[in-house]
């Protein structure tokens, strides 16, 4: 297992490892990230190795301030407006990559764009102290359930990485929203911790959806976030032996082997925070299938349904 250090005493050890080309797991406001120096080929390669991640799948580069972001990416006026509204926070913006940015080519998977985010808390402090951006996809084996606690990360990746920084449960619970501005319009590449409605309010126009099947940013693979169990979505009845991922006060018909409720009151923010931890717990009961009650699509429900659809996709 990896070394587990509380967040308030982990900075120096984390810096030592990153400077040596190692990768570490650390908490962000969304989920735990598997972090390496985004300018280090060794560090970035170790991210892919630890996750078992396909190298055509790009990574998000995380920055600590505007100066670092502008050294890496070229921001148009609308991208800048979105960043000023939501950074630091759970929004990732895809922008053209600047020549001489120092970002290792593995981070962008050969694209001429870069996905940038400015996180809060420990990750921001660490990036500032390092002086380089960090690449940090979710801290989980590729395609599997994202980690929202240090214990979940250590059980999954602890044999492959030297350090997990323990910051407790992550508050948002799903990965960042990813957007890209094209021809003055905002396109949603991945729903996440910032609702599309909030982005539309800042942009002053509807957010467009659809990627044409291209992988332009992390989290766009069809099968992703998957438990070992099969999944059945939008159920109104539970089959014998199934586990049930519930939502809200009303239950699907039938008796489930185990039940966890994302939010008994129907609060989508609470549901997002609980999504991955509840999936992990239900997967552990050994049921062949996890049945999932319907979750509304508005607000953070769009991100929740996106993760559920990818978890249920053919593998």
Automatic annotation (TrEMBL):
Record-level GO cellular component terms: cytoplasm
Chain sites annotated for binding ATP: 53, 57, 113, 138, 146, 190, 225
Known EC number: 2.7.7.87
Molecular-function GO terms, alphabetical: ATP binding; double-stranded RNA binding; L-threonylcarbamoyladenylate synthase; tRNA binding
Pfam family, one: Sua5_yciO_yrdC
Positions with a binding annotation for L-threonine: 30, 62, 117, 136, 176
Listed name of the protein: Threonylcarbamoyl-AMP synthase
Natural source organism: Oryzicola mucosus
Lineage: Bacteria, Pseudomonadati, Pseudomonadota, Alphaproteobacteria, Hyphomicrobiales
């Amino acid at each position: 297992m990896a070394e587990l250090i509380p967040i308030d005493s982990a900075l120096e050890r984390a810096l030592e490892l990153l400077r040596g080309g190692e990768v570490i797991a650390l908490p962000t406001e969304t989920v735990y990230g598997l972090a390496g120096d985004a300018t280090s080929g060794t560090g970035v390669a170790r991210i892919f190795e630890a996750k078992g991640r396909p190298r055509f799948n790009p990574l998000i580069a995380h920055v600590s301030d505007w100066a670092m972001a502008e050294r890496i990416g070229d921001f148009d006026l609308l991208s800048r407006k979105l960043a000023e509204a939501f950074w630091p926070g759970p929004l990732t913006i895809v922008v053209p990559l600047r020549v001489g940015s120092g970002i290792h080519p593995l981070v962008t998977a050969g694209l001429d764009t870069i996905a940038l985010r400015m996180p809060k808390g420990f990750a921001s402090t660490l990036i500032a102290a390092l002086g380089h951006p960090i690449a940090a996809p979710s801290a989980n084996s590729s395609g599997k359930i994202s980690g929202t606690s240090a214990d979940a990360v250590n059980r999954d990746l602890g044999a492959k990485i030297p350090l997990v920084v323990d910051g407790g449960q992550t508050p948002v619970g799903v990965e960042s929203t990813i957007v890209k501005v094209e021809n003055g319009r905002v396109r949603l590449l991945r729903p996440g911790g910032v609702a599309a409605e909030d982005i539309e309010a800042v942009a002053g126009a509807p957010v467009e959806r659809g990627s044409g099947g291209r992988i332009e940013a992390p989290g766009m693979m069809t099968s992703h976030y998957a438990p070992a169990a099969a999944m059945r979505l939008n159920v109104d009845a539970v089959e014998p032996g199934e586990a049930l991922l519930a939502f809200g006060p009303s239950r699907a018909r039938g008796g489930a082997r185990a039940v966890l409720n994302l939010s008994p009151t129907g609060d989508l923010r609470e549901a997002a925070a609980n999504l991955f931890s509840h999936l992990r717990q239900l997967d552990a009961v050994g049921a062949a299938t996890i049945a999932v009650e319907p979750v509304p699509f508005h607000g953070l429900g769009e991100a929740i349904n996106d993760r559920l659809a990818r978890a249920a996709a053919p593998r």
